[in-house]
Write a structure and sequence with these properties.
The chain has six helices and two strands, in the order H-H-H-H-E-E-H-H. The chain is mainly α. It has a two-stranded antiparallel sheet. Helix 3 runs antiparallel to helix 4 and helix 4 packs antiparallel against helix 6. The protein is elongated, with a radius of gyration of 19 Å. It starts with a helix and ends in an 11-residue tail after the last helix.
Length: about 140
């Protein structure tokens, strides 16, 4: 397994671990946004599947990892900039929800990990193209 794939697998496992931590410790998430929690479960499961994919179909897994990280980063960013949550029967203003999310170290760390995964994926795709095997052509007869 190439070094960049080992790095990708490690960071995917870190992403899954942080997601699992959030799922097991953030009762506010489960109480006020269960659909967000379910989405995070899907991201965690796909992270783990992609780790296996890096061994089985590395090129496909790198593309999947990069796309997943872009989607997760977008979803988390949307939560920050357009999300609202219910709290105590009422709706929390966007600024209050932003404050909640940006005050959550695990959320910010997971957001940063997605950026790292995107960078690793882009680098893996670029280096994969640069080092892809060239099929020698036979000289004309």
């Amino acid at each position: 397994m190439k070094t960049i794939n080992i790095l990708a697998a490690t960071v995917l496992l870190v992403s899954a671990a942080i997601g699992t931590y959030i799922l097991t410790t953030d009762s506010y998430l489960w109480a006020q946004a269960p659909t967000h929690a379910e989405g995070l479960i899907a991201f965690v499961v796909i992270d783990v599947v992609l780790v296996g994919g890096l061994w089985w179909k590395p090129k496909l897994a790198v593309i999947g990892m990069t796309l997943l990280a872009l989607i997760q980063f977008g979803a988390m960013g949307a939560d920050i900039f357009v999300g609202t949550m219910t709290f105590g029967g009422g709706s929390v203003a966007q600024s209050g929800f932003q404050t909640y999310l940006l005050g959550d170290t695990a959320f910010k760390t997971l957001l940063g990990v997605q950026v790292v995964l995107i960078v690793i994926g882009v680098l893996a795709i670029i280096t994969g193209r640069r080092h892809s095997p060239v099929t020698p052509q036979k000289p004309p007869v």
